[in-house]
Amino acid sequence: MRIHFNCNWGSASILFFCILIAGCRHSTDNGLAHVTLVTDWYPQPEHGGFYTALLKGYYKAEGLDVTIQPGGPYVSPQQLVAVNSAQFGMSTSDHMLESVGNGDPLIAVVATMQHDPQGIMVHADSPVRSFADLGGHSVAIEPGSTWFEYLVKHYHLKDVHEIPATFSVANFVQDPQYIQQAFATSETFFARQAGAQERFLLVSGTGYDPYRVTFTSRQFLEQHPELVGRFVRASIKGWKEYLRDPAAANAEIARLNPAMNPAWEEFSWRALKDGNFITGDDPSGAQVGQFDPVRWTTMYNQLSDLKVITHPFDPATAYTLQFLQKK
């Protein structure tokens, strides 16, 4: 078992080079098939199932030597997987549909989360009680966020002023009128730590409900379907175990990412578990990793309605059920 984490996060170019080199290594000296998973951010509990599968030997038992390579603000898992510089990447189902609609040769193979913890954070005494109340307010969001375009259209919002998100809660803590995008697993923790009383509005409750997914390239899937199946099987096992016992993965995540601390990790893990983000509505765990074609079609129709997807295609080409439970 190896966890490769030798990149300097302070340099986007060095990080990209490290990912590129790691993804290009296809063989190992231990007889295992080497693959690289590029995550969507720095190591965090939202990646806990993958680290659990690595630490517990689930990947190795499937004949895989897996490198978990951290993402970040300057890393595009879609681009790296599309050019075979990595074999797997993390994204969301709406972004996958957008990518496929733009001609990227990608396909989602397993759900990391059944529901996205994306939302908007307001102060506890804010007059904004629901998304419908956002009209006339300024909201800090990442520019180009499709989910926010959906909210504006769905709720017929007027005079909403978008300001750039900063990936910090400093402005929120200082300004009682401040409204920002946030994750239920992260920014809410820091707001509370700083003494701010917050409320959280979860986007998935509006009907815009993307999966968080792991994807590969069409070429890699066609050439190595058995390997993809083994990766999916071990990853699902890792996520189920992480929900049961996060200790090993969280310790490794804290080692790899010094910004993490035990309180934050516990908060994130508890939010993932209690919010049913990974398991979905079935507490038995039967939905972990699974896709529902109806939800993919719904998301496709929402993106088409927003004109994010402008050239029609079959949404079933953006994902596969090949390695998931048969209904």
Structural commentary:
With 327 residues, this protein is α/β, with parallel strands linked by helices. Helices cover 37% and strands 17% of the residues. It has 2 domains: 12-115 and 210-318, Periplasmic binding protein-like II (D-Maltodextrin-Binding Protein, domain 2), CATH 3.40.190; 119-206, D-Maltodextrin-Binding Protein, domain 2, CATH 3.40.190. Strands 2-1-3-10-4 form a 5-stranded mixed β-sheet, sandwiched between helices. Strands 8-5-9 form a 3-stranded antiparallel β-sheet, with helices on one face. A two-stranded parallel ribbon has the order 6-7. It is globular and about 60 Å long. The model is unreliable at 1-25 (pLDDT under 50).
List the SSEs and their pairings.
Layout: H1 12-23, E1 33-38, H2 48-55, H3 58-61, E2 64-69, H4 77-82, E3 88-92, H5 93-101, E4 106-113, E5 118-123, E6 138-141, H6 146-154, E7 161-164, H7 170-174, E8 180-183, H8 187-193, E9 198-202, E10 212-217, H9 218-223, H10 225-244, H11 247-256, H12 262-274, H13 293-305
Parallel strand pairs: 1-2, 1-3, 6-7
Antiparallel strand pairs: 3-10, 4-10, 5-8, 5-9
Helix pairs in contact: 2-10, 2-11, 5-13
